[in-house]
Write a structure and sequence with these properties.
Layout (H helix, E strand, L loop, with lengths): L5 H29 L4 H4 L13 H15 L19 H32 L5 H21 L7 H9 L2 H8 L5 H11 L1 H21 L3 H10 L6
Length: 230
């Protein structure tokens, strides 16, 4: 195992993170369009062009600072606008729209696993693909697991709101203004990690055979990228 430079880390993290958050948002808009809402399409947000989804703070500032000071990178894009009144069955359809984002992340994790396998086949020149693939699996699995938490305004919170009966759904949705503070509290107390880490490793273990990497080698790659401690 060898150390990689900050520039190499940025190169490995940049594309997987950018695609993870933009495809996630585009998936919401695509599902909404399928169910009758053209808002995202009319506003030019139904596209994989990252420039249409970039949030200066969430897509550039926060990930950059995190990479410099913690070795990790995480961020978010501008939410794709959805007009729920345009949906044929708003309560049911909002559940499907919310689920589209995490499901897109799961699909991308599978695709990045195939990128790792390609990198192995290419030998030494494929090492950058292995690095990017490892980041892609991790960041997409993290985004999927995080967004499925039943906490408004996360996707899981919107799913829960759609599944609960009317009065309970309305009461549950009132948590949304405090959702971010609750999330920070879960992070600081370590509860968030306790919830997410088993899910992340379950997906990684499931995808490992697709990558072609031995489990120990995959862990070493994650360590080199700063995703795991030494």
């Amino acid at each position: 195992m060898y150390e990689i430079t900050l520039i190499q880390k940025i190169a490995a993290w940049a594309l997987p993170v950018l695609f993870a958050i933009t495809v996630h948002e585009t998936a919401h808009g695509w599902m909404a369009l399928r169910l009758g809402d053209k808002t995202a399409l009319m506003l030019g947000r139904l596209t994989l062009n990252p420039l249409k989804h970039i949030d200066p703070v969430g897509t550039i500032l926060v990930p950059g600072l995190m990479l410099m000071f913690s070795g990790l990178m995480f961020g978010w894009a501008k939410p794709v606008p959805i007009t729920w009144q345009n949906l044929g069955n708003p309560k049911r359809d909002m559940v499907l729209v919310a689920l589209a984002g995490p499901l897109a992340n799961l699909l991308m994790a599978v695709l990045w696993a195939l990128v790792i396998r390609l990198g192995i086949m290419l030998g030494d020149i494929g090492v950058p693909l292995i690095f990017m693939g490892a980041v892609g699996i991790f960041i997409n699995t993290l985004l999927m697991a995080l967004n499925l938490l039943p906490l408004p305004p996360l996707d899981g919170g919107r799913v829960m709101t759609g599944l609960l009966p009317g009065p309970l759904a309305w009461k549950f949705s009132r948590i949304e203004p405090y959702g971010f503070l609750i999330l920070i509290g879960l992070l600081v107390t370590g509860i968030l990690g306790t919830i997410l880490i088993p899910v992340i490793w379950l997906v990684i273990d499931t995808l490992a055979p697709i990558t072609g990497l031995q489990p120990r080698m995959f862990i070493n790659v994650l360590r080199m990228l700063g995703i795991l401690g030494s």
